[in-house]
């Protein structure tokens, strides 16, 4: 069992930046692949970014590629999502997800642990 707690969301102007954090419980954090998903009002939850357990591999949705960076610090049991050049269409609740595995995972059903979500609002 692992518990995930997101933080760092808030209100930011278009073109601005935010860094989301996801703190995970457990001594075996390094054994988990991690991902970020987001859900805008009235929309389905969509994949944003993923990172392997080693941190050596990452993958991004086309909508965020070049603007977002996922990273992890296994010593701190934390995964991050650095979001730059934010756009109004990035407004959503952002969820951290985890699963045991050695690969990258991009589908919602591939994850079995989820955080509570943190709101990101991009508006002038």
The beta-strand count equals 11
Number of helical elements: 0
Label the overall shape. globular
* Overall radius of gyration: 13 Å
Give the N-terminus to C-terminus distance in angstroms. Answer: 40 Å
Structural class based on helices, strands and sheet pairing: mainly beta
Unreliable residue stretches: none
Instruction: Kindly report the average pLDDT value.
Output: 94
Most strands sheet:
7 strands, mixed
Q: Beta fraction of the residues?
A: over 45%
Query: What oligomerization state is this entry in?
Result: single chain
The sequence of SSEs as H and E is: EEEEEEEEEEE
What share of residues is helical?
under 10%
Your description of this structure?
With 124 residues, the chain is mainly β. Helix content is 0%, strand content 48%. It is built from no helices and eleven strands. The protein has strands spanning 4-7, 10-12, 18-24, 32-39, 46-51, 58-60, 68-73, 78-83, 92-100, 113-114, 118-122. Strands 2, 4, 5, 6, 9, 10 and 11 form a seven-stranded mixed β-sheet that branches. Strands 1-3-8-7 form a four-stranded antiparallel β-sheet, with no helix packed on it. A hairpin with a 6-residue loop joins strand 5 and strand 6.
List its traits.
mainly beta, 48% strand, seven-stranded mixed beta sheet, 124 residues, 11 strands, single chain, four-stranded antiparallel beta sheet
Summary of the model, kept short:
By secondary structure, the chain is mostly beta strands. Helices cover 0% and strands 48% of the residues.
């Amino acid at each position: 069992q692992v518990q995930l707690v997101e933080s760092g969301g808030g209100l930011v102007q278009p073109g601005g930046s935010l860094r989301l954090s996801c703190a995970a419980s457990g001594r075996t954090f390094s054994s988990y692949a991690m991902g970020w998903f987001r859900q805008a009002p009235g929309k389905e939850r969509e994949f944003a970014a993923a990172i392997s357990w080693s941190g050596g591999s990452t993958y991004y949705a086309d909508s965020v590629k070049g603007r977002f960076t996922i990273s992890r610090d296994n010593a701190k049991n934390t995964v991050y999502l650095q979001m730059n050049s934010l756009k109004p269409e990035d407004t959503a609740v952002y969820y951290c997800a985890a699963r045991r595995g050695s690969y990258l995972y991009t589908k919602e059903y591939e994850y079995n642990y989820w955080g509570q979500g943190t709101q990101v609002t991009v508006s002038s």
